[in-house]
Each structure stands twice: as C-alpha cells, then as structure tokens.
Design brief:
The chain is of the alpha/beta class. The chain has helices spanning about 40-45, 70-80, 90-100, 135, 140-155, 160-170, 175-185, 185-195, 195-200, 205-225, 240-245, 245-255, 265-275; strands at about 1-5, 10-15, 25-30, 60-65, 85-90, 105-110, 115-120, 125, 235, 260-265. The strands form two sheets. It has a five-stranded mixed β-sheet, sandwiched between helices. Strands 8-7-6-9-10 form a five-stranded mixed β-sheet, sandwiched between helices. It is globular, with a radius of gyration of 20 Å.
Length: about 280
C-alpha cells in the first residue's frame, strides 16, 4: 500500500493506493512546506490526516520547499508519524518530471503561480535552469503573466477598452493596483489570480492571447532552450499550462520545440509512475 502526497504551500493532496493501482482514499490537508514551516507545525498537519497507518508500506512525498538539504528532515517527520521505513521526500519538480515523463527522458516544466523546468533522464533531474522567483525570473508563470498584464494595461500597450474591462472586472483603479502589489502580502499570488481575466477575454481580444504567447516564449527561450535538447519534447504541469494550452503550443512552435503532455495536476501521473 503506497501513500503519495502532492504538496504545495496552500494544500496537500494525499492518495492511498494499492499495488493494483486502485485508489483506496483521497484526502486533502493544509499545505506543507518544510522551508517555511517548523517541525511542530508540520507534525500538527500530519496528525490531521486520517489513514490506516498499519496498511502503509511506503510513502512518496512531493512538495514545494523540499530542497535537498531538507529532504531528510521531511522524511524523518513522515517516518515518525506513520511508522514506515520506506519514505521518500523530494521536490515538486521531480514529482512533475515523474508524472509527465514516467521512466523516459524528457523536459518537464511547472507552469502555475510560479514556473520551473528541468532536464530529466527518466530517473533523476540532471539539469535545472534556476527559476529565480517572480521578481528575478519565473517567466511563463501566472505571477509574471499577471505582472505583464498590469504593465501592458497601464503603459498603454493594451487598448483603453481592455483597461476599462479590467478595472470593472477587478473593481480597482491604477492606484489600488499599485497599493495591492507593493503594500500587501502575497503579491505573486494576487497577480497570478489575474490570469482568470485573461482567460475570460483572450478570445475577444487577440492581444491578450499574444501577451500569453510572448510570456511562454520568454519562458522557453530563457529556461528550456539552454538545455540544448531540441530532440526532446517539452511537457508541462500546472494551471497556467492547462488553461493556456493553445498559446503554449503556439509559443513552442515559434521557438522550434515540440510540446508533449500537458496536465493540470501531477497526481494521476505519479500513480502511473509508482505502479508501472
């Protein structure tokens, strides 16, 4: 019996499945991020999970904030909570690679609130272009796409009509936007939430679709092309990749790359990986 976790800072999805790849239970808890949370806080969240501990034979935890220096800490907390020796705690990027590529070589990307990519050899990550976060990098992410939208609206790159729709949609003025970005917490999450405006109006205004294409082209040029592996398909996971599939494929075609799989979440792919 295998327990698999896909964890972000907001929520963690837990799936218990047996060797026949039959899902026994699915649960959600608060997000777990060992980079930001104390051992006491993580232990408290783990205690809220309701599973029959005795049935679990191995655990695979994939999470944001599970940096190499924090893997052992996270594994130790999981072992203590569930009494299981076979425990693996690794990054969400390796989880994305396993979910998208399985046991074969490929380029795997995360395109959600943040963005990341890696060259994967079918077992491990062999190369990773640093994402650098939404201030220094994160091209192609929801946060940067939202930032680019705001920049284009208020610098007049986009039409006055789009600006009017945007301010009606958000009920915010330019001064409100500046205050929200610079004076309130979680600016990256808020800017990423603006992608919903783009999905609603991109078919009506082609320049919004083009804004997304340009953002993906930046991502591919700066994060994927440095791997020098045009022979490999590029697969992506995350809400931004999922809802802007047409734009992602268009951007890849322009850059001479081939898109492979696009998934909204990694769990189904992780189940395939661990039971294949």
């Amino acid at each position: 019996m295998i327990l698999i976790a896909d964890s972000g800072s907001t929520k963690t999805e837990w799936v218990l499945a047996n060797n026949g790849n039959t899902v026994i239970s699915r649960q959600k808890t608060e997000g777990i991020n060992p980079f930001h949370q104390s051992e006491e806080e993580i232990t408290r969240i783990l205690q809220t999970l309701s599973v029959e501990d005795a049935r679990i034979t191995e655990i695979h935890f994939y999470g944001s904030g599970v940096r190499p220096e924090l893997c052992e800490r996270m594994q130790s907390l999981l072992k203590k909570r569930f009494g299981v020796d076979h425990v693996e705690a690794v990054s969400d990027l390796l989880g994305a690679a396993r979910a998208l590529c399985g046991h074969t070589e490929g380029i795997a990307c995360i395109l959600g609130t943040g963005a990341n990519s890696c060259l994967y050899d079918g077992s491990t990550i062999v190369q990773n272009t640093p994402a650098l976060g939404y201030i220094l990098g994160d091209e192609g992410s929801g946060a940067v796409l939202g930032r680019n939208l705001l920049n284009a609206i208020y610098k007049g790159v986009l039409s006055a009509e789009i600006r009017e729709h945007f301010e009606h949609y958000t009920n915010l003025s330019m001064n409100d936007v500046i205050a929200r970005v610079y004076r309130q917490p979680m600016a990256n999450r808020w800017m990423a939430s603006l992608t919903y405006f783009i999905t609603q109006y991109k078919n009506e205004y082609g320049e919004l679709s083009q804004l997304v294409v340009n953002s993906f082209r930046d991502f591919l040029r700066l994060n994927v092309l440095p791997y020098n592996r045009r022979d490999l398909s590029v697969s992506a996971i995350g809400s931004v990749a999922w809802y802007f599939q047409t734009e992602l494929v268009h951007a890849a075609t322009i850059e001479g790359l081939q898109i492979g799989k696009i998934e909204q979440t990694p769990m189904e792919g992780l189940l395939r990986y661990h039971f294949s």
